[in-house]
Amino acid sequence: MEENIKWTKLTRCAGCGAKVGAGILAQLLDGIEVHRDPDLLVGFDKSDDASVYRLSDELALVQTVDFFPPIADDPFLFGQIAAANALSDIYAMGGEPKLALNLLCIPEKMPQSAVHALLRGGYGKVYEAGALITGGHSILDEEPKYGLSVTGFVHPERLLTNAGARPGDIMFLTKPLGTGVLTTAAKAELCPPAALAQAYRLMATLNKAARDIMVRYRVHACTDVTGFGLLGHAVEMAQASGVALTLDAKGFDLLPEALALARTGILPEGMYRNRTFAQPFVDAGQTELAVQDLLYDPQTSGGLLIAVDPADADALWDELRPSVPSAQRIGKAADYTGGARIILR
C-alpha cells in the first residue's frame, strides 16, 4: 500500500455518518431485556451518551465507546478527531475522562508510519483531556476504523443525562453545524480547502472547555451532537425529558460553505436517515430546506446541546462566549402538549 494514502477513499462512509440510523437502532434494540441494578444510574434505555454506575455516594463511573471510519486523509488528524469524538460522551454526562483503550481496525498492508501517526493523534488528544490511553485491541480489516473506549468519573448527584430538560430551560449549542456536508463534499473534491480545514479544527476541538463551564451552573440535561444530527439528538432529548423544544432556526451557527453546498444538493447519506427518524417529530414551519438539511446533518465530534435553568442562562452565556466562541443560544424547552416535539421558528 502506498505511503500517500487517501484514507477517506478506503471506506464508503466517513466519521459519524457511518452510524446506524436512530430508527434502525431502536428496532435492533427493541425487545432486548434490560436488567436492573440499583447502582446502574444510566443504561441504554434512554439513548444516552454513556452508561453510569454508582461506586459510592460520592463517585460514579462513566463508560462509553465510539469508533468510526476515516473522516480525514491525514491519519494524525483522523486520530485526533476520533479521540475527541469519543471523549465527548464523557463530557456530555458532566464527567471527567480518566482512562481510554484504543479500538483499531487496520488493513494488513497499511504502512507502519501511517498507523503510528493515527495512534499519536489519539494519544495526544486524550492527554490533552487529562486522561491516559492504557492499551486497546486491534484487528485486521479492509476498511480502517479507529476510536476509543473511555472511562471517566462524576459525582452521582451531578451527572447529566439527556432526560432532565425542564419547561423553561434555555437551550445552548457549543459548535457550528455542517461538518457532515463539508466532509461529504471533500470526498468528491468539491469542498473549498479553507472550509475543510475549519471543519477539521472544529472536529478536533475537545468539548472540555464547554463541559468545565457548564458544570458550574444548573444544567438539567446535556447530550453531544454527533451522527444523528442536531434534530435527531434534540428529538431524543425532548422525548426522554417529556418536553417540547422551540428552536430558533436563524440562531444556529451554520458553516456558510456547508449551507451553500446543501443548497446545491450535496448531502451525506446519513442526513436522509436522520430526517427519516426525526422528521415525524419536527414542525419545521417556513424554515428553508437547506437549513433543515444542516440541522439533520450527521456531525462528527460535534458540540454539546445543553438545557440550563433560565435563572442561570445569562451567566452561562457570558462565561461560554470567551472560551467557546461558537457557542449559540438556540431556543427553550416548554411543556409538551402533544404534536411535534421540536418546533422551528
Automatic annotation (TrEMBL):
Its EC number is 2.7.9.3. GO terms for cellular component: cytoplasm. It catalyses: hydrogenselenide + ATP + H2O = selenophosphate + AMP + phosphate + 2 H(+). Keywords: ATP-binding, Kinase, Magnesium, Metal-binding, Nucleotide-binding, Selenium, Transferase. Mg(2+) binds at D49, D89, D224. It comes from the Bacteria. SUPFAM superfamilies: PurM C-terminal domain-like, PurM N-terminal domain-like. Its cofactor is Mg(2+). InterPro entries: PurM-like_C_dom, PurM-like_C_sf, PurM-like_N, PurM-like_N_sf, SelD_I, SPS/SelD. GO terms for biological process: selenocysteine biosynthetic process. One of its GO terms (molecular function) is selenide, water dikinase activity. The active site is at C16. Residues 48-154 form the PurM-like N-terminal domain. Homodimer. Synthesizes selenophosphate from selenide and ATP. This is Selenide, water dikinase. It comes from Agathobaculum faecis.
